[in-house]
C-alpha cells in the first residue's frame, strides 16, 4: 500500500500521473504529492518508535510503491549532535550539527540516490547517468551497483580524487569533463537519445527530493516534533533545502508538529559561486547563471540550478535568507568546527559556519535561538581542502620537548 496521489508541476501546478516515468514539466521540476488524510489515519508518531532506525521508517511519506523495490545500503538515522563549544565561540550556545557524513556513502547524497535508484528499479530502468560535482556520483555508483544497474558518471576533471575513486570502485563508467557540472549535465542530457540512459540529475526526476526530505523528517522526530528556530544548509542544487521545507509542510498538515512555527531556512553559498544568494539580494525568483564558478566546496560549484525558484520560494516563505560566505576563509571554518567539536566538517558545511557568523554579527540570529547546521559530508572526502604543513621530526637527534610544547602553543 502506498499513499502517492500524483506528481505536480512546481512551476504551474499541473497534475501528472505517478505510475510511470516522469522527468520535468515545462522544463521545471515535479513534486510528489500524497494523500495526507489517509496517512494521518494509517500512522502516528508513536508508531515510528518501533520501526528500524533508518530513513525507510517514514515509508508512508515516501514514494516507493512496493517495499520489494527498495535499494538500501543500511542508511541509518544520522546523529543530531550538540555543538556547545562551537556555539559559544560563535555566540549561539544552542547550536547543533546534523552529521550526514555517517551515511553509507559518506554524505547526504545517500538519501536522494537511495530513493531515486529504488524508483528506477520499480519502473524497470537499468541504465542511469548523472552529472555531479562529486558526492552524488559516488552515491549513484554505489546504489546502482547494489541494484545491478549500469551507471554512467560525468564530473569535472578537478573533482576531488576521492569522489573519482569511489565511482570507479563501485563499477560505474566515469568520464571526466573539462568544464563545470552544467557542462556535464549537457552531456548527459544530449546522450539520452543516443544511449537510452535515464538522467538522474538533480531535480530532473522527482524522487531525489523525497529522499532528501527525510533529513527534515528525522530532525523533527529527533527534536520531539519541535523544530529549531534556524536551519543553515549548504546550497548547490538545493534539493535538500527544498526537500526539508516540503517535509515540514507535510508534517504540519499531518498535525505532528508541536508548534505551527517553522524554521527560518538559510541557504548558504560561497562567494566563489553564489547565484542563489545574488538572486535573493536582488529580490529575484530565478537566478542568473554564475560566471567563472570556483570554490573548494565542490558541492556548491553549481552555477545554475534548475530548482532555483523552489529554493528562493522556500527561503522567503520561511522568513530566512540566502547568503554567501568568504571563499578564502573556508579552511579556517573547517578547522574551527573540527577543533571545537571533533566533527569532521566538510567545506560546504564550513560555509554555513561563515554565514552563521554573518547573521550573528548582524543581529539576525539571537543567542537564545536553537540553531541546526547540516554537515553534508566528511572532510576526509576533500583531501586538497586542508593542506597540512607541520614539522617533521628527525629521529637521529634528541628531541627538544620544551620546544615542541612551545611550538604547539
Explain what the structure shows.
With 409 residues, this protein is α/β, with parallel strands linked by helices. Helices cover 38% and strands 15% of the residues. It has helices at 36-42, 45-48, 84-90, 109-122, 135-147, 161-169, 181-195, 207-222, 239-254, 275-281, 308-318, 330-341, 347-361, 401-408, and strands at 4-9, 15-16, 30-34, 80-82, 95-99, 127-131, 150-156, 173-177, 198-199, 230-234, 264-270, 321-325, 371-375. A six-stranded mixed sheet has the order 4-5-13-10-11-12, with helices on both faces. Strands 8-7-6-9 form a four-stranded parallel sheet, sandwiched between helices. The chain starts with a strand and ends with a helix. The model has no long low-confidence stretch (mean pLDDT 96).
Give the gist of this structure.
The protein is of the alpha/beta class. The chain has helices spanning 36-42, 45-48, 84-90, 109-122, 135-147, 161-169, 181-195, 207-222, 239-254, 275-281, 308-318, 330-341, 347-361, 401-408, and strands at residues 4-9, 15-16, 30-34, 80-82, 95-99, 127-131, 150-156, 173-177, 198-199, 230-234, 264-270, 321-325, 371-375.
What would CATH call the architecture of the domain at 80-103 and 207-381?
A: 3-Layer(aba) Sandwich
- Count of separate DSSP helical elements: 14
Tell me the quaternary state.
Answer: single chain
What fold name goes in the CATH topology slot of the domain at 80-103 and 207-381? Rossmann fold
Give the low-confidence spans: none
Question: What is the number of beta strands?
Answer: 13
